[in-house]
Amino acid sequence: MFWSWKSDDRFETVLAEFSVDNKDSIRTILDQYLKITWDHSNIGNAPDVVQRINIHLGKLRTGQLLFTSDPNKDAFIFCAWWPWGGGDKISIRIGPSYKKLLDSEKAEKIKRFKGWFGI
Q: d(Cα 49, Cα 43) in Å, to the nearest integer?
């Protein structure tokens, strides 16, 4: 279950793609660290900061998920779970969200975050 990470500059995240055969094990890891799961049916109840991420990512569609750590903190992590139309792969995009930083400070933190993934 090895895959490589790529930068997705469009969303300021890291991106990985994997076979649906691995979805249960990946989902277990995400559930362990990002304890809140949003989908198209409950995203309307999410805090404003999570809703802004959802809008930035293009809004959740059926089958897509958005995992977050605690969005009430000044900094938290999110992960977008996007199954592919063909049904054989899923891509995940993981990124940090910072509430109280200047844009220049956010850029530096995002650069450091991507460095953890070898990007």
A: 11
